[in-house]
Amino acid sequence: MSQGILLFIEQRDGVLNKTSLEAMVAAQGIASGTGEKLSAVVLGKSIGSIGAEIASKKLEGVHTVEDDKLAEYTSDGYVAALKQVVEKLDPRFVILSHTYQVRDFAPKLAAALRKTFVTDCVGFRVDGSEVVFTRQIFQGKINTDVRVTGASQVLASFQAGAYRADKAEAGESPAAITSLEVNMTDIKIRTQAEPKFQEAKQAVDLSQAPLIVAVGRGIKNQENIDIVKKLAQALGAEIAASRPICDNEWLPMDRQIGSSGQTVAPKLYLAVGISGAIQHVVGMKNSQTIVAINKDAEAPIFDIADYGIVGDLFEIVPALTAEIAKVKGEG
Amino acid sequence: MNIVVCLKQVPKKDSILRIAADGKWIDERDISYEMSEADSYALEEALRQKEKHGGEVIVISLGPERVRQSIKEALAKGADRAIHLQDAVFDTATDAAGVARALGAALKAEKCDLILTGLQSDDYGFAQVGLILAEQMNLPSATIVMEVQPEGDTVRVKRELESGWFQWVRLPMPALLTIQSGINQLRYATLKGIMAAKKKEIREVKAADLGLTSDDLKASQTIERAYLPEKTKRTEFIEGKPADAAAKLVERLRFDARVI
Fold first, then answer.
1. Nearest C-alpha of chain A: how many angstroms from B175?
2. Do B168 and A138 touch (CB under 8 A)?
3. B123–A137 C-beta distance less than 8 A
4. Which domains, from first to last, does chain A contain?
5. What is the mean pLDDT of residues B198-220?
6. Are A72 and A47 in contact (CB under 8 A)?
7. For residue B161, is it within any domain?
8. CATH code: domain of residue B157
């Protein structure tokens, strides 16, 4: 019988990925709801300090797995090592954060273990001895409660921002850190990674901007961006965009907000023609005041907006620009 | 170079989604469908690689009769032939593992250098089918790929990491890549392409042809309830003509929210 909960802790170049602490909040909640014991696992090479940092949290133990073949992240290395770890510890739940690294290896791990993997969860509910996971479909437009049937062991990943890292409970005393042996001698790492890099120096640091006007797909074409630029100018705001706009090179990549761009929390975030796909929302949902202008009243951006105007942005944006100019003129 | 592209058909991006009467899925009446966005970029990438390096592009899709429309679109854009997994047994494959198992069984007979999928679908968004398929077929893989450069019997790909970071990774072929939206510029099918597609093969495959039963494809995950997300904030909707709405909004931002 599988028992306990194993939390995967992500590190890259010896730096803890903070979203692992967000997943820890979920894992601690599942532990207290089910009565299962929680432990964590970290993979890498010379990762003692991360092990110690995690051991300060409320959990039963931390397993460190160190090997030369785990010094750099590779999908092959992580799948091989974690497969052995999961087979050895036999946890009922393996909890991960839904990061790009996890997305790169965890589905393979699940397949290698022949277990089911519930991805990108935003919540959970303990139902008797079972756990029902909440995950979003249609890019955040609809929530679903997902029940796993006929499986003794389940992997689940939690979306970045679903829980707050500072809510991870600290332990009364440091948890025991144990080093776990895995046999990597016969494991062939098929991929060869080059050093990671940033495309262009981030010319603009949008995270410092107090006011941001962001534009999305609803703007339809490049020429129309001008009306949004004028609004930003009138407000004295920085202009930003959702991914499709930068993919089309209508605005430079360093203006992109979201999981693959910048994360911001300005005083005012004014979203124009942005539907609010989850990849965008994770980059701006902590903004103090959110305004959304969109033709679709059902767009998920309205779920997080403080003020909303449903209508034609091509009429509303120029009217708003004029109004702001008028008000500023008065001041 | 032979490339397989896994395509999924999903409800159109701007569809108004309503919950079905049973509360477990969306109401599919009046929904029109299209190729999942990231999959169309995967297809485009395959076509571009074929144009540079020769070979064949084979598309494979699992789903009901309507999926043929997306398959035809792929053929019209330049794919050479297609495999369509279609019958009631495949409908039981509603989680990623089941779909991957069916695709894997159908691809057994194909000799290919690359398998491309979108990084995730626009409906379920599992982000798993490609990788499970890779594991079943014992293929190396790379996810969230932004550039593909075949070099001899290897392929060098640019992977997107988080927060604006990237990394080049080299893999031996055959390999499976999951493609990020925006990797290239999508083409439209030409009239000539549409005409040519009429002569191209769409092979219909039934579960029994692959020796699969509904037990083999049965999902471990079931949606117990589908519902609209609870609002985390109370949105004040501002109505009226554009100029009036703009004036009201500015007033709220100045005197209530005090952000401008």
1. 10
2. no
3. yes
4. 5-179 (3.40.50.620), 206-330 (3.40.50.1220)
5. 95
6. no
7. yes
8. 3.40.50.620
Contact assignment for B167 to A193 by CB distance below 8 Å: yes
Name the residue facing A143 among B134, B159, B227 (closest C-beta): B227
Question: What are the chain B neighbours of A136 within 8 Å (beta carbons)?
Answer: 125, 229
One domain for residues B105 and B52 = yes
Q: Which residues of A touch B44 (CB under 8 A)?
A: none
Q: Which residue type is seen at A98?
A: H
Residue of A nearest to B127 (CA): A103
Cβ-defined contact of A145 to B167 (cutoff 8 Å) = no
Number of domains comprising chain B: 2
**Distance of alpha carbon A190 from the chain centroid:** 27
ipTM of the complex: 0.91
Do residue B144 and residue A104 have CB atoms under 8 angstroms apart?
yes
Burial (CB count <10 Å: 0-12, 13-18, 19+), residue B172: middle
Going by the DSSP 8-state scheme, the letter that residue B47 receives in this structure is H
Task: Find the mean pLDDT for residues B70-88.
Answer: 97
A235: nearest CB among B11, B100, B260: B260
Inspect the interface and report whether the beta carbons of A104 and B142 lie closer than 8 Å: yes
Facing B162 at nearest CB: one of A99, A142, A149: A99
Q: What number is the average pLDDT over the span B4-15?
A: 94
Instruction: Say if residue B42 is in the same domain as residue B69.
Output: yes
pLDDT tens readout for residues B102-114 = 999 999 999 999 9
Q: Which domain holds residue B246?
A: 229-260
Whole-prediction pTM: 0.86
Range A206-235 average pLDDT: 94
For residue A201, pLDDT beyond 60: no
Name the residue type at position A148: V
Alpha carbon distance B255, B260 (integer Å): 9
If asked whether residues B182 and B241 sit together in one domain, one would say: no
CB B8 within 8 A of CB B119: no
Predicted local confidence at residue A207, as pLDDT: 84
Task: Round to whole Å and give the CA distance between A225 and A220.
Answer: 9
